[in-house]
Specification:
124 residues, 3 helices, 81% helix, elongated
Length: 124
């Protein structure tokens, strides 16, 4: 039983870390969008950032419910909860990936504007 609690604690901790990281990505993407001269790219970036908040909140709720209900339901319900958590995390990561790509496109456009010092640099 103790190992199950530990894994649930780890799951909640990991979900909270993911949520914090996505908020950080949103913050940086927002700064980039404010400095991008191309309105079309700004709209693309805004559209890619939009679902991140909702998906982060859903991840938090699903993880909390799963942790509080762990062991109280049958195995099929546990598997379904795992699938919901996985699907939500995948959707969140798709939105983050789209936001990073849109941020990169804005950053490239910003390179042509010599007054902007803010730019996206991909870690390699």
């Amino acid at each position: 039983e103790k190992s199950e609690f530990s894994s649930m604690t780890d799951m909640i901790k990991t979900c909270k870390e993911i949520i914090a990281l996505t908020k950080n990505i949103q913050k940086h993407a927002s700064m980039i969008s404010k400095n991008c001269p191309d309105k079309r790219l700004v709209m693309s970036l805004a559209n890619s950032m939009e679902p991140i908040g909702m998906l982060s909140q859903q991840l938090n709720i699903i993880a909390s419910v799963k942790a509080s209900a762990s062991g109280k339901y049958n195995e099929a319900a546990e598997v379904e909860a795992d699938e919901m958590l996985t699907i939500n995390a995948q959707n969140l990561m798709k939105s983050v990936r789209d936001t990073v790509r849109a941020s990169e496109a804005c950053s490239v456009k910003m390179l042509s504007n010599p007054n902007n010092n803010l730019q996206f640099r991909r870690k390699r």
